[in-house]
Design brief:
This protein is of the alpha+beta class. It contains 19 helices and 51 strands. Strands 32, 33, 34, 35, 36, 37, 38, 39, 40, 41, 42, 43 and 44 form a 13-stranded mixed β-sheet that branches. The longest helix has 39 residues.
């Protein structure tokens, strides 16, 4: 045996490991300097050519992106995981300012962020196959983290060690488990990140703190006696004050009603900012500054207090904002009031989730489009305040006042509107668009009563409360929408007959061909609006691989009266400078037929992975020092750009999905998708699963571009998941009950509906309707029943064939199964052939299997051959019977739909590549010749290179670099090695090939040393000269004799 030893930095050499073992995966263990074990795995793969590929890998990479030291160990184990000696020696003080936690030392940062190889030490206790984590000076996470769920993200919490008299900090961490890309597909990448990251994009320094979290200030001449262990200023009041209860003091400190009012602080807020306690020193909030442009992870300073945050500007004359929950995704606005200034400062908060991290971004509120606005179009002053809060704003006559809630987290949120110097008070919601009940203002000094009209409408993304004394006042949005003075500045019309995109991998081979037909674009721009209309008449994505069950991957489902496959319409406002303002956006697409097979899916995935890896390497070269706490999308202004739609509409569209497993094909063992699909086998086969992707209508959405994309992704993902049961119902191994039910219901519906429709038009049409309805009932019932029969028997046949343990028989059967009978006669003929083949292989296998096994593996092979022969004696005839039923049922099914719409074909044959593998312009003749060669005898000659061919009606002469073929109706009539060709002769009706030996096409044909190819006289000289040229180019050894033999 061949054995290897492995050493990694910080580890000793491993014991020798046998890599010639037939086991797919074996273990090898490395020891670090502290004798901690690192298990690695060895994967062996022996391909069809006898080459062995050995992969050594760790099942997990642990990646630390928290910025703090992380230590790992297996749950219930005392010692830490191997390879962490240097990390264990790092010390981090997390008792002070969080800014001091994150090391500036590049060496220490590199050590913290270096991936750690990890695998669970083998144990009989399955509960121990979880990871325990410790961050900084925290305790170990006792529940453990499961690393099994690939693609999962989650969060967990670890607390600091308990210290009497100090609040206990809680660390919130996110974890995501993803599969490695490319050759690392066997390894799971486990990434740890902070759950919350605060980002300040305002031009001011902000201060933040956890609601209710305090610490005691110690004077220079006072020692901390550690009396109060909760970090709660209310605790000593109960013991020392006597004037306030513990509960009442807590209400002062954290009541949501204790909001700052204008222009002075409330008593509760003043007490909340700084508590002076008799006999116990001062208590202060656990605040932390966040400079402009700064970002920092956030962890709760006190795990026992409210999980909410407040912010304010650094100047102490600014009051604290309302609280917000960092778990709340989306955008909202916080308000901070000043003790002197009239206008508050509004901060837009955007909480977005990327992976397992929530990025909380503070930015100035949009001045052009605040979240709310109060328009006072009356002659009265209006006093406004959030219901339940004392802080009041005054909106003067004619003023447009930007507004936000003092406490946005309170529900329901109502605005209290009061007319100054009167008793008129009105409560209303700013989130409900429309007219509200009018308000009557009593007159004074003999003046008549006045009627105030209240209406909430959308001015772009802003909800506007307009208070006016006239009901016929035009809405601001109506004024902006007026196009009377909107002059056209540019207009563009573009019409393309079509475009073709060819996708070629590194082999090289053409794998996909995208054809888009009749593209129309209309673009116009005026002073106020930009309009775009884009449409595509048809689109088709072809599978350019040979021997595929589906030659077309994607095609539209268009009825006879439909001529547009895809349409996009939008109208964008040019008046807004700070946001993307769309007055109208609509997308409509007709249905899609999607047909996939295993091979094209794997090759397309590998191509995408190759492109992605190239892009990733290029991006990594641009910035080798990845920054922590940056969301990937946040690096671009696109992420924070706000977008608003007055009308957003995506129409629903149906999708029909088919998938077929292609067995017996050699896949790259490093292909993760290929290995996954190969394990599902025939259970993954799905036939015409009817899915419906639901539409989406949004009313005045206002969010960032990234939030909008996340919203669309969530909608379509959820919509697709709701349809997944139809994929299961369309599975072949169940007989496709969804298709059966749909076909029978369609036939029954047409049977009654067609005559009813005809009866409305007259007696003749009624008779035609009866004929149509009956035909639909018979056709759909026959198709549904025999389609279900063929699926069930076909699946049983595939499973039973595997019991024969005869790889050649299984491969031949799978090749024959790709032939689809066109009608009942052809289906019965194919079934009888397969039945006879099953009995023949069963009888001969009893003798040939032991002989072949003994030849390959000796005595062990002989025993396997005897067992395989006996097994095949029972299984192969049964498979033949099932194949007879399957092929006959397929023939009957296809007869029922023989006159339906023709099956879509490729736009063109796959591109030709020669032995030099150079990409050249598309040559249709060479592509046709290569297709003939590659599909001949189910791909028997795919390892040869096409050289030349000449079509002669339904026949053809084909020359490869090894053989010469004569083909009729796509089937090989005869072939000969080029090395056996002795000469060629031309006569008036064709060309004669002379061979050095005797050959025959079958056992019934007399052997001969020549072959005659009939060719029309006008083509004979041309074909003859071309064959001579081809043979000379191939440097045929007897080319001189060939050129002289006529």
């Amino acid at each position: 045996p061949l054995a290897i030893q492995i050493q990694l930095p910080g580890f000793r050499y491993s014991p020798p490991a046998d890599i010639t073992s037939s086991d797919f995966a074996t273990y090898i263990e490395l020891l670090d300097a502290d004798d901690h074990i690192l298990p690695l795995r060895i994967a062996n793969h022996l391909d069809a050519l006898g080459r062995r590929r050995v992969s050594i890998y760790a099942t997990h990479w642990l990646v630390n992106k928290t910025g703090l030291r992380l230590l790992y160990k297996q749950l219930y184990y005392e010692s830490i995981a191997a390879g962490q000696r240097s990390l264990e020696q790092l010390t981090i003080d997390t008792s002070g300012d969080p800014h001091n936690w994150y090391r500036d030392d590049l060496g220490e940062q590199a050590l913290i962020r270096q991936p750690l190889l990890f695998d669970f030490v083998r144990t009989f206790d399955l509960r121990a196959n979880k990871l325990s984590v410790k961050i900084a000076n925290s305790t170990w996470y006792s529940k453990g983290i499961s690393l099994e769920a690939e693609g999962a993200t989650g969060t967990f919490e670890i607390s600091d060690e308990y210290v009497r008299g100090q609040p206990t900090r809680s660390y919130q961490l996110g974890v995501s488990v993803t599969r490695g890309s490319g050759k690392l597909w066997r390894t799971k990448i486990v990434t740890f990140t902070p759950q919350f990251v605060l980002i300040n994009e305002t031009p001011h320094c902000l201060v933040y703190y956890q609601q209710g979290a305090y610490r005691r200030k110690i004077s220079a001449n006072e020692e901390d006696d550690g009396e109060y262990s909760t970090g709660d200023p209310s605790a000593p009041l109960l013991a020392n004050s006597g004037s306030a209860s513990r509960g009442s003091m807590r209400s002062l400190a954290s009541s949501p009603l204790s909001r700052p009012s204008m222009p002075m602080h409330s008593r509760a807020d003043r007490m909340d900012q700084r508590l002076v306690l008799s006999g116990s020193g001062e208590w202060e909030k656990l605040t932390c500054p966040l400079e402009a442009g700064e970002r920092i992870p956030f962890h709760w300073p006190n795990m026992h207090k409210s999980r909410r945050i407040r912010i304010r500007l650094a100047d102490t004359k600014w009051n604290w904002s309302g609280v917000f929950d960092p778990e709340e995704l989306g955008s909202f606005t916080l308000k901070m009031r000043h003790q002197v200034q009239t206008f508050p400062y509004l901060v837009k908060v955007n909480v977005k989730m990327e992976g397992s991290t929530k990025y909380i971004t503070f930015m100035p509120e949009n001045e052009e489009y605040p979240v709310y606005r109060i328009d006072n179009q009356t002659s009265e002053s209006l006093l406004i305040q959030q219901e339940g809060f004392k802080a009041t704003d005054c909106v003067e006559p004619g003023q447009r006042f930007p507004y936000a809630w003092d406490e946005h987290s309170q529900f329901p949120r109502l605005l209290r509107l009061e007319v100054a110097h009167s008793s008129v008070v009105k409560l209303l919601s700013l989130d409900e668009l429309g007219e509200h009940e009018n308000v009557t203002v009593p007159g004074h000094g003999g003046n008549p009563d006045r009627l105030l009209h209240l209406e909430v409408y959308a001015d772009g993304p802003t909800r506007v409360l307009r208070v006016s004394e006239r009901e016929d006042t035009l809405l601001e949005s109506d004024k902006k929408a007026s196009l009377a003075d909107d002059h056209l500045q540019m207009e563009v019309f573009l019409a393309l007959e079509g475009i073709v995109v060819s996708i070629i991998n590194e082999t090289p081979e053409e794998i996909l061909l995208l054809t888009v037909s009749k593209i129309n674009l209309e673009y116009s721009r005026s002073a106020k609006n930009t309009q775009l209309e884009f449409s595509v008449s048809s689109m088709q994505l072809d599978n350019q691989l040979y021997l595929t069950p589906y030659s077309v991957i994607l095609s539209p489902k268009l009825s006879k009266d439909q001529h547009i496959f895809f349409n996009l319409s939008l109208v964008r406002s040019n008046e807004s400078k700070t946001i993307d303002f769309y007055r109208y956006f609509a997308v409509q697409s007709q249905g899609l037929n999607i047909q996939l097979d295993e091979i094209v899916l794997v090759k397309a995935w590998d191509f995408i992975s190759l492109v992605w890896d190239f892009y990733s390497r290029r991006e990594a070269a641009k910035d080798t020092d990845e920054k922590l706490f940056y969301p990937s999308a946040q690096k671009e202004s696109f992420a924070t750009k706000m977008v608003y739609f007055q009308s957003f509409l995506v129409h629903p569209f149906p999708v029909t999905i088919s998938f077929e497993h292609v067995p017996g094909l050699e896949l790259d063992p490093d292909s993760r998708l290929g290995n996954l699909l190969s394990r599902t086998g025939v259970l993954a086969n799905v036939d015409k699963a009817p899915l419906l992707v639901s539409g989406l209508t949004l009313r005045h959405p206002f969010m960032t571009n990234v939030e909008m994309l996340d919203r669309l992704q969530l909608h379509f993902t959820t919509s697709s998941m709701r349809e997944m049961h139809k994929l299961v119902g369309s599975a072949d191994f169940l007989g496709n009950p969804i298709s059966l039910a749909n076909n029978i219901s369609t036939g029954v519906f047409d049977f009654f509906n067609e005559p009813a429709q005809g009866l409305q038009l007259g007696a003749r049409e009624f008779g035609v309707g009866i004929v149509r309805g009956t035909r639909s009932l018979v056709k759909n019932s026959v198709y549904g029943l025999f389609n279900t029969t063929s699926k069930i028997t076909g699946t049983l046949g595939k499973g039973l064939a595997k019991l024969s343990v005869d790889k050649d028989y299984i491969r031949e059967r799978e090749q024959r199964s790709r032939e689809q009978p066109r009608h009942i006669g052809e289906g019965f003929a194919h079934g009888v052939r397969d039945l006879g083949r099953g009995f023949f292989r069963a009888a001969t296998g009893v003798i040939t299997d032991p002989v072949e096994g003994a030849r390959q593996e000796g005595g062990l092979g002989l025993a396997k051959g005897v067992l395989g022969g006996l097994t095949g004696l029972l299984s192969k005839p049964a498979v033949g019977v099932l194949d007879l039923v399957t092929k006959t049922a397929e023939g009957i099914k296809n007869t029922a739909t023989q006159w339906d719409e023709a099956k879509r074909q490729r736009v063109r044959p796959p591109r030709h590549f020669g032995p030099d593998k150079v990409l050249r312009g598309y040559d249709r003749k060479k592509a046709d010749g290569q297709r003939l060669l590659y599909v001949l005898e189910d791909g028997l000659y795919r390892d040869e290179w096409y050289v030349y061919h000449v079509p002669i009606g339904n026949k053809a002469v084909l020359v490869s670099d090894r053989h010469i073929f004569f083909i009729e109706d796509g089937h090989e009539e005869w072939n000969a090695l080029l090395s056996d060709v002795r000469g060629i002769q031309m006569f008036n009706k064709g060309i004669v090939f002379l061979f050095s030996g005797f050959c025959s096409s079958s056992i019934f044909e007399t052997p001969t040393n020549k072959r005659v190819v009939p060719i029309p006289p006008r083509l004979c000289p041309i074909v003859y000269q071309k064959l001579l040229t081809v043979l000379k180019r191939l440097k045929h050894p007897s080319v001189s004799n060939i050129s002289g033999a006529q």
